[in-house]
Amino acid sequence: MKKSIMAMSSLLLIGGAASAQKVAFEEYNLDNGLHVILHQDKSAPVIITSVMYHVGAKDESPDRTGFAHFFEHLLFEGTENIKRGEWFKIVTANGGNNNANTTDDRTYYYEVFPSNNTELGLWMESERMMHPVINQIGVDTQNEVVKEEKRRSYDNRPYGQLMQEVKKNMFKVHPYRWTTIGSMDHLDAATLDEFKAFNKKFYVPNNAVLVVAGNLDVDQTKKWIQQYFGAIPKGAPVVRQKFEEAPITQPIKAVFEDPNVQLPMVIAAYRTPSMKTRDARVLDMIATILSDGKSSRMYKKIVEEKKIALELATYNSSEEDYGVYTFLALPMQGHTVDEIMKEADEEIVKIQTTLITEKEFEKLKNIYENQYVNSNSSVEGVASNLATFYMLYGDVNLVNTEIDIYRSITREEIREVAKKYLNPNQRLILDYVPAKDKAQN
């Protein structure tokens, strides 16, 4: 939750907006297990039809990584009633736009249409779920698309391998140890039958949530949902294996050489708990205090005052099972990563031993009030939040109440959670450096 700091004079205004911004919704289940959430917002003539499937990179086999992300692309190829190459043409011809994204935990598809095309959006998502065409030409086409994405976003991008290297060192048994884009060798080796089996297992109504949000007629929308989704067969229950990582009790050291970079980077990463925990929210706040914005503690000291780093950042990336709290920095010429880590560790010790000031605490609360308002400020954001809170947190009403958790966090909790998770013996130190042959040139 990284946000720009607002003036203290706006705090009451934001607090009032947050209190008034309650998101109304209705939820129910179809007989086939599809969970439905409806949110009516008549402020603009738009409608969002979205489906989130509870499948991500963590649901893949170690020798077949990248499947969930691959399906993010593959399920736009076409259906029994939407010819190959026609999906995007239909959407744009009807004044809409659409997209999809994949994480370790879930895959999310959505369309934004003028509200008079609600039925069209529902029909298209039902087609994706019930009648996808998975054939070799689609697999071969999307294989090339994904390979190009990997080259552009990972292989040939400066620091593009960063999270891949962090994850593989932080997780030894959990599937979080690989990236969502996965291995191209695994995708090349997969058979058409394997892709079909993956679809049959995960892209089923009882493993999904449908959110319809915007300027909708509730009764008519329910009729269309029953008409288009009600006949889709229920899939077999998805049974997930649980993976538990042993605690990190000794420092992990790693080095990665990247031919795409000229400057070294130091990364310190700590394994943290599930996004569903209170501690994860406290760690969000700690990351904000330490490095969100130029007035944050680490930025002021390490970048502005001591001038030993060009840039730095801290963030807590929480997921359904675990999270990773990451600090990274680029040393200024003439300075070392050891210098930076010494200063960074001093700031962590301060937050572990001394309560943050009341002024810092008020500023922190202001940031999170602002984040709450922003996250629900558009119907697209509300739709995504409703799906996420249902699917990954098991509580849709967190769309309204999660801010109360942040409001209730105390300065004492911030100190204790920092003590619990941010210790030198519990972390990875990754030296991310230029490749030797490049460094010599």
UniProtKB/TrEMBL annotation:
Q: Does the keyword rRNA-binding apply?
A: no
BP terms from Gene Ontology? proteolysis
Per its record, what are the GO molecular function terms?
metal ion binding; metallopeptidase activity
Residues of the signal peptide: 1-20
List residues of the Peptidase M16 N-terminal domain: 36-177
Spell out the Gene3D superfamilies in the cross-references.
Metalloenzyme, LuxS/M16 peptidase-like
Which key words tag this protein in UniProt? Hydrolase, Metalloprotease, Protease, Signal, Zinc
Which segments constitute the Peptidase M16 C-terminal domain? 190-367
Q: Does the keyword Signal apply?
A: yes
User: What family name appears in the similarity comment?
Assistant: Belongs to the peptidase M16 family.
Q: Name the PANTHER family on file.
A: NARDILYSIN (PTHR43690), PROTEIN YHJJ (PTHR43690:SF17)
Q: What is this protein called?
A: Peptidase M16
